[in-house]
Amino acid sequence: MLALRAHDVGKKYEVFRRPADRLKELLWAGRRSFHHDLWALKHLYLEVPRSATWGVIGPNGAGKSTILKLITGTTRPTCGTLEVNGSVSGILELGQGFNPEFSGRSNVMMNCSILGMSRAEALAKFESIVDFAELWEVIDRPVRTYSTGMYLRLAFAVAVSVDPDILVVDEALAVGDEYFRGKCYARINDFRRRGKTILFVSHSLGVVRNLCDRVILLQNGEVAAQGTAEEVADEYLRMVHAQEEARVKAADRRGAASGGPRWGDGRIEIREVRSLDRAGAERHAFAPGDALTIEARFRVKADVERPVFGVGVFRSDGTYVSGINHLWHERPLTVGPLRGGETGRVRCTIDPLPLLKGTYYLSYFCYDHSEAVPVAIDHQERVKLFQVVEGPVEMHGIVALPTRWEIEH
Fold first, then answer.
1. Which of 377, 135, 41, 179 is CA-nearest to residue 126?
2. Looking at residue 353, what is its pLDDT?
3. Which of 98, 166, 165 has the alpha carbon at shortest distance from 133?
4. Residue 155: pLDDT above 80?
5. What 3 state SS string does the chain have?
6. What is the β-pairing status of strands 214-219 and 285-286?
């Protein structure tokens, strides 16, 4: 028997430009429309067997949360049929179903009632709920005084307390700290061992690969792919690569047009900085382990005896990742003298790229090292923007460190 079955399910919302337009439409009684239709979900076909763990992935606005709202009964489908066999509990939007003016204690009792528990059952589970959430010190305070993490802890503790047949978990877990996320995943693993059905929405492909039996990929409200976790995660990465390439390319062009701080005596002009892949094609999105070549073209306006070209790599928040040039290198490369009127290009290749997921920018510079203190010729800040997308292996931080592991027991 299936836990879930969706046949051509769609969800449409009526979007009004102004609140008054809703009243106008009522007064016109169908003779004139003041809204436009927004289909958050279209043509959903889904069959989830019992005891399965399914993942739902996709970019923001793809329809992931809409699916979960339909399954939990928070909203109803506009068209199609949806069968849910068994009790359902889950965490959707943070604080959904909580009254911010009520205490944590009152909200626990109220939500247990909404989930179908009697008062006696809720009282019997109350202590274990608060123990799991670790909120005894604040349980009698109004929920509006809780932090986002406290909201999450209480919501998750209530959701799993009813021991549902189907557990639905949205990306809300992402806001918790590492310690509490570990507790949540341990409880999810316990649900899996006991044969419960789980639907899990996440942007963390590492968790999806490890946790889910099958995954569906949503894009623009429709299923773009469905299959094993590995297959669909790879397809999602390809889609993200393409989207990030277009986005960062546009942002890079805007950045190049506006320009960052620039200084130097101008004897050499850095005219163009590009980021290239292993094949020599210009790209703006890379994955950890790819080859990144930074190419700069230059024109010499006046003689320089000993020019040195270099690159500064920064994360988007300004964190200085690395500064590199061809002179301070294990195999120093000396250039010069360069004479006025000459042109050329400089290429620096990083292979494999050790950077992890994030947005990065480059500063490019040329200094004259014939002096005791190098003199700036052309120094440009934030000259190039590029993106590193998530790779096939889950890692955290800024860089992927090369490691060798040995285990004895």
1. 135
2. 93
3. 98
4. yes
5. CEEEEEEEEEEEEEEECCHHHHHHHHHHCCCCCCEEEEEEEEEEEEEEECCCEEEEECCCCCCHHHHHHHHHCCCCCCEEEEEECCCEEEECCCCCCCCCCCEHHHHHHHHHHHCCCCHHHHHHHHHHHHHHHCCCCCCCCEHHHCCHHHHHHHHHHHHHHCCCCEEEECHHHHHCCHHHHHHHHHHHHHHHHCCCEEEEECCCHHHHHHHCCEEEEEECCEEEEEEEHHHHHHHHHHHHHHHHHHHHHHHHHHHHHHCCCEECCCCEEEEEEEEECCCCCECCEECCCCCEEEEEEEEECCCECCEEEEEEEEECCCCEEEEEECCCCCCCCCCCCECCCCEEEEEEEECCCCECCEEEEEEEEEEECCCCCCEEEEEEEEEEEEEECCCCCCCCCCECCCCCCCCCC
6. unpaired
pLDDT tens sequence across 273-329:
999 999 999 999 998 999 999 999 999 999 999 999 999 999 887 889 999 999 888
| Polymer length in residues for the chain | 409
Q: Which CATH architecture has domain 259-388?
A: Distorted Sandwich (2.70)
CA 355/CA 310 separation, integer angstroms:
18
SS3 for 69-96, per residue? Answer: HHHHCCCCCCEEEEEECCCEEEECCCCC
- CB neighbours (10 Å) of residue 277? 14
Taking a C-beta distance cutoff of 8 angstroms, is the pair 346, 362 a contact?
no
List beta partners, residue 166. Answer: 88, 197
347 Cα distance to chain centroid? 32
CB 358 within 8 A of CB 316: yes
Lowest mean pLDDT, pick from 244-253, 338-347, 371-380: 244-253
For the domain bounded by 2-228, which CATH number is listed?
A: 3.40.50.300
Q: Are 38 and 30 in contact (CB under 8 A)?
A: no
Read off the pLDDT of residues 76-100 as tens digits, 9 standing for 90 and up.
Answer: 999 999 999 988 887 766 556 788 8
Domain definitions of the chain by residue range: 2-228, 259-388
CB within 8 Å of 339: residues ≥ 6 apart = 300, 303
